[in-house]
Specification:
The chain is mostly beta strands. 0% of the residues lie in helices and 44% in strands. The strands form 2 sheets. A 5-stranded mixed beta sheet has the order 2-4-5-6-7, with no helix packed on it.
Length: 136
Amino acid sequence: MNRPLHALLTLALAVTLGSCADHGPTAPLASSPLKLGLGDTVHLSRTDLFLRFDRVVAESRCPMGALCIQAGEAIVEVTTSDRRGTATFQLHLTGMEGESESSAPPVSSLGHRFRLFRLDPYPRIQRTSSSLHSRR
């Protein structure tokens, strides 16, 4: 894959309240969007849950400026961990933004629900400049 590294993902979290332990970077309480860079780990406030953006598994979304038959899909892998254990799972996003559960189905992990709302940068058509040389 010759595309630039995907730097940012936005998750929406529906989290049940837990302990108030404070370890490392803290994210706001759930039901609000959370932005993570590739490889980042955050601690969700008022819970003992940590969330890490591991990698982009697949990126087939229709690039901006292209005419596509299908919207395509982005798939990312994230890991959650708390005192009960660790779980790695995938989140799917169809199109540009996950405005509905059909375009961004929620996934449950360690008692919390996650949805992928956005993955940036969004693919664009790579235009290359080419020149035509002719001889007379």
